[in-house]
Amino acid sequence: MELIELNAKKRETKGKGAARKLRVTKAIPAIVYGAKIDPMMLSLDAVEFVKVIRDYGNTGLFFNLKIEDGPDKTVMLKAMQMDAFSLEYLHVDLHEVDMDHSVTVMVPVETSGVCPGVKNGGGMIQIIRRELEVICKPVDMPESIVLDISGLDIGDSIHVKDIDLGDSIVIPHEVNFTIITIVPPTADDSEDSEEDEEDLIEEDDTSEE
């Protein structure tokens, strides 16, 4: 787990009007809360925060939050609100974490290896879940869950019960849902292949004339 440094300032005012004034100054209203602290209103530098999201994504982020005139805190990104039209960040929720206690985070899914069902059978990899919820201590949180697809043929799948992340990481689930499956080529692909083959035959016939 990487702690990303993030700067913040305390703010006293709240409400829509105060939030608009903050955003005019290129700041983002934020709040940090936790089991052992009272909620604290903050503001984040918009340029700095956008750069962090651009560099690290927006899932499973932990910060060393450096509050001006306040104590540093270890926090995780809990939620973000964005304007649907301008794509500006409207508000950020941060949650203080205890490094000795488990947290629930979303972790991206990645694949490794060459899939025989794709290479030899013309199938397609269908990723059903691109992120998985895990419960673990912050120090044990993986950057991603890498699934080996080198043994999968058409019709094969990887389910949540197939994943073993060790005793320190739990993937909560009530059903054995599918994460990745290898599907056969579509009918359109087959028709395209047949048309390509017919075109080649016609070209051969023409060349013989």
Model description:
By secondary structure, the protein is an alpha+beta fold. The chain folds into two domains: 3-97, Ribosomal Protein L25, Chain P (Beta Barrel), CATH 2.40.240.10; 104-190, Beta Complex (RNA Polymerase Alpha Subunit, Chain A, domain 2), CATH 2.170.120.20. It has four helices and twelve strands, in the order βαββαββββαβββββα. The chain has helices spanning 16-24, 46-56, 116-119, 187-208; strands at residues 3-10, 27-34, 37-45, 62-67, 73-82, 89-96, 103-112, 124-127, 131-136, 145-148, 157-159, 178-183. Strands 1-3-2-6-5-4 form a six-stranded mixed β-barrel. The chain has a three-stranded mixed β-sheet with strand order 9-7-10, with no helix packed on it. A hairpin with a 5-residue loop joins strand 4 and strand 5 (73-82).
Q: What is the element layout, followed by pairings?
A:
Blueprint: E1 3-10, H1 16-24, E2 27-34, E3 37-45, H2 46-56, E4 62-67, E5 73-82, E6 89-96, E7 103-112, H3 116-119, E8 124-127, E9 131-136, E10 145-148, E11 157-159, E12 178-183, H4 187-208
Parallel strand pairs: 1-4, 2-6, 7-10
Antiparallel strand pairs: 1-3, 2-3, 4-5, 5-6, 7-9, 8-12, 11-12
Question: Nutshell version of this structure?
Answer:
With 209 residues, this protein is an alpha+beta fold.
